[in-house]
Amino acid sequence: MSAPSTHQVTYTTLLSVEQLQALQASSAPLKVFDCSFELMQPEAADRLYAQGHIAGAVQAHLDRNLSAQTPEDAVNGGRHPLPSREAFAAWLRDAGFSNDMQAVVYDRNGANYCGRLWWMLKWAGHDAVAVLDGGLQAWEAAGGAVEAGVPADTPEQGDFTLSPEKAALVLTDTVAKNLGRPAQTVVDARATPRFRGEVEPLDPVAGHIPGALNRPFSANLGPDGRFKAPDALKAEFEALLAGRDPATVVHHCGSGVSAVPNVLAMEVAGLGRTALYAGSWSEWCNTPGLPCAQG
Asked: Which position among 35, 114, 253, 285 bears the catalytic label?
């Protein structure tokens, strides 16, 4: 199984529209994934993809492709449980993906959903995956090629195989065991009113994991919809952590999806690749005996 060749430029965090266009113009093995989604209207994802996507992009549907289909296949609990790495690898092969490819992921939702596939590819051992900075909006603004409809042909089968994990997954029992210890700093990516427990549109309990810090995932983007500069992100995360070791950070949100922009932003900021609690609040607050805080 070939890895990307040493002379081929690989992108592991973000890439710009111009960099993607250069990749497309080269002969570099490449696969682009459209991860657009609507949490309250999952059926809208198919409509958005059909309305328009980057030419040649494969759809990656949060519910169908990036979450477990049965409880037996789920790695964790919560609303969007991860599928097994083996099931995910099988879908990647069906999507035409191989180990020698650069993966590029995007959405039209402020990087809320495409980070899921970015993280899952790292978890599957594939480092050459990057988020298109600015998403579909930036691509269209630059005159990038877009196509409508759904491809009639399925992609040619890929030959992706799993490698050792390059992303850290933390499960509920570990978060609970380390609660309040200096070895763990929980960062919650949900909007502040949900974090405080003032509103809760999705889960049976409002509030947050005791001791968690709040960093809404949208804070990583500037007004142009692109990620802030590395120095700005670094300063903001260091202010949030207030002296805590970045290596102790475990990110979560409602269901392990919108936490990933915080994982990505910390890496862009040069603070390392931090862990993800994928079960997140939806698993935590449904687990009997675990404490929940408000305010």
From this structure: 253
